[in-house]
Amino acid sequence: MRVPEKLLALINDENSFFISTHINPDGDALGSSLALSLALESLGKKTVLYDRDRVPEFYRFLPAHEKFSASLPSNGQPLILLDCNEPGRAGLDDVVLPYSAVIDHHETVRDFGDIRWVDPHAAATGIMVYYLIKELGLEITQNIATNLYTAIAVDTGTFRYSNTNSELLRVCAELIDSGADPASISLALYEAWSERRFRLLIEVLNTLEIVDHIAFTFVTKEMFIGTGTTAEDTEHFSNFPRMMEHVEVSAFFRETDGAWKVSLRSKGSVDVARIAERFNGGGHRNAAGYKITADIKTAKEELIKEIQDV
Amino acid sequence: MRVPEKLLALINDENSFFISTHINPDGDALGSSLALSLALESLGKKTVLYDRDRVPEFYRFLPAHEKFSASLPSNGQPLILLDCNEPGRAGLDDVVLPYSAVIDHHETVRDFGDIRWVDPHAAATGIMVYYLIKELGLEITQNIATNLYTAIAVDTGTFRYSNTNSELLRVCAELIDSGADPASISLALYEAWSERRFRLLIEVLNTLEIVDHIAFTFVTKEMFIGTGTTAEDTEHFSNFPRMMEHVEVSAFFRETDGAWKVSLRSKGSVDVARIAERFNGGGHRNAAGYKITADIKTAKEELIKEIQDV
After folding, report:
1. Which residue of chain B has the CA closest to A213?
2. Percentage of residues of chain B with pLDDT beyond 70
């Protein structure tokens, strides 16, 4: 992986950086930003870490996560934008940005940034930051290693998705040697559910209905009240029915005020972004969503119709 | 990892081998046995692969899995016993075994075998077989790589358990370079469930009861009949309750003829191998099992007592 010379020059020339990532930050956004901040500080630079949204509770095991702030800096440092490539995704539409660099691996590329390092072949922004830190000749400390390992783990499903390759495993082996603990990171990512959340999952799985390779599950307001949970607790629920071989689309319906939020997950060739767009929603090929005002029976029938049409 | 000279000598001296692994075989048992068989055959040797139980349907993606047979050979070849260290675990109690070698990573060690290579520090028997194949100077073909990668993936929760380390990731990187496809193996392991199996999981999760950081679930014969499933469909079921932060031990009870097979999984410091040994079972620190003849209420109470005693 080739780090742009202009990015290395920017980092060497400037003394203070404004590091930001997308709203609703995930493990790759947080881990890669924190790793970059820690590395630049080890080089004697100053950094301000910004996210419009707070660090989700289950990511507060990340070393130095408390460096994130929702206050914008005011002294015009260059921006380094990670894991997205337009200021709107970071809630920075109205901010004056004198100079900007982008480090991202997403496929949809916007025309933003004086320096644009966007590599859709990278499994995670975390692996790009790893190569940047190596190119700068900086030490991978334990805190940097833990952040980078988490970033890569989250975006590869800990080495289960099709972006997993041997290079990635070798980089992660080095991160382990630098102090990242794979078991405790996995524990934090996958085995830190509350009992309430687990009991809600069981209730949701009990609603399973399968029609034409589409798995339907739903959660009602009553189920939230009964288990003492909230919408946040349903993250990843839509992935479970994908465990079944013949399920091509998993559709998870969540009741909101007078409507249903529908989360779609697919395997293989089914493009759920296109289906969600028909309902004025959107997303990626294998993960998308939309909102519909209808009773659940009608909502399911309309979805079946759209999937059969695609 | 040091491969015993006597084992290398045995393989070089003999021309035909009887390879066997434990009953109710899992991915490490199957993958490591198949990899060894394929490697020995590339060396011009003959092998007979034996398991008393058939290869579970969801492991039939393993290359060469059809080599497994439930027929015992009769011409007295040396036995190589994998992923267990006593003939009873392989259903071989009544078989005359003129000469035997053991390759295993389990902690509970019995006094069996003319050559005994038992390394509880190895994450999987698959990684021991990897070093054996390297030591023999044989090529890791794509079929061998897929079997070894699967063996290691299964026994480390694809690099999530505490037996994951940097050496393991480097070996798996090499296996990917030799043709193992991490994404398609993960798909086969985690997203190829039958609907029946998924419905059985939901029924099992509905039995969840939590006492003192111990999560209890069970499956009855009736539930198997109702869903059209068998015991082999319950692999991994005991892992699900571990998703909860405060659960330290997950105990899954499976009804057999007049008894319960108990599968224990733990997080952190709880040593379930020691607990299983009190019931004449065995296993690893974080994954063990035993059999008990009692009604389920008594069986649960006795387990709680033992865990509190440890």
Report:
1. B195
2. 100
Question: B243 vs A167: CB contact, 8 Å cut-off?
Answer: no
Residues of A in contact with B165 (CB under 8 A): 176, 182
What does pLDDT average to over chain A?
A: 94
Residues of chain B with Cβ-Cβ distance to A142 below 8 Å are: none
CATH topology of domain B195-309: Diaminopimelate Epimerase; Chain A, domain 1 (3.10.310)
Of A156, A197, A150, the residue nearest B241 (C-alpha): A197
Q: Give the number of A-B residue pairs with CB atoms closer than 8 Å.
A: 115
Name which of A106, A137, A210, A177 is nearest B170 in CA terms: A177
Inter-chain residue contact B183 with A166, CB threshold 8 Å: no
Cβ-count burial of A276 within 10 angstroms (0-12 exposed, 13-18 middle, 19+ buried)?
A: buried
Interface test with B, best of A202, A207, A244, A266 (most B CBs within 10 A): A244
In chain B, domain spans: 5-190, 195-309
For residue A36, what is the enclosing H or E element? helix A27-42
Instruction: Yes or no: say if A262 and A303 are a contact pair by the CB < 8 Å rule.
Output: yes
Mean pLDDT along residues B235-244: 94
Work out the pLDDT band at B205, boundaries 50, 70, 90.
very high
Residues of B at the A interface (Cβ-Cβ below 8 Å)? 157-167, 169-170, 172-174, 176-177, 182-183, 186, 190-195, 198-199, 201-202, 205-206, 208, 210, 241-246, 267
Q: Which CATH superfamily includes the segment(s) B5-190?
A: inorganic pyrophosphatase (n-terminal core) (3.90.1640.10)
Tokens of B55: 């290869």
- Cα–Cα distances (Å) from A289 to A76, A281, B200, B273, in that order, read 37, 6, 29, 45
Chain B residues with beta carbon closer than 8 angstroms to that of A179: none
B101 to chain A, closest Cα gap in Å: 32
Supply φ then ψ for residue A88, to 5 degrees.
Answer: -60, -35
User: Left (φ > 0), alpha (ψ -120 to 50) or beta: where does A91 sit?
Assistant: left
| Cβ contact B202–A199 (<8 Å) | no
Q: pTM to 2 decimals?
A: 0.89
- The model's pLDDT over B85-116, given as tens digits with 9 standing for 90+, comes to 999 999 999 899 999 999 999 877 788 999 99
Under the banding of pLDDT at 50, 70 and 90, the label for residue B297 is very high
Contacts of B13 (CB under 8 A, 6+ apart): none
Asked if B191 and A158 come within 8 Å (Cβ–Cβ), the reply is: no
pLDDT above 90 covers a percentage of chain B that reads 87
The model's pLDDT over A189-231, given as tens digits with 9 standing for 90+, comes to: 999 999 999 999 999 999 999 998 999 999 999 999 999 999 8
**CB of A119 within 8 A of CB of A3?**
no
The encoded tokens of residue A243 equal 């465990």
Three-class SS state of A154: helix
- Asked if the Cβ–Cβ distance from A169 to B173 is below 8 Å, we say yes
ipTM, two decimals, is 0.89
User: Which residues of A fall within a CB distance of 8 Å from B212?
Assistant: none
Residues of B in contact with A212 (CB under 8 A): none
Q: CATH: 2.50.20.10, 3.10.310.30, 3.40.50.1980, 3.55.40.10. Which one for A197-309?
A: 3.10.310.30
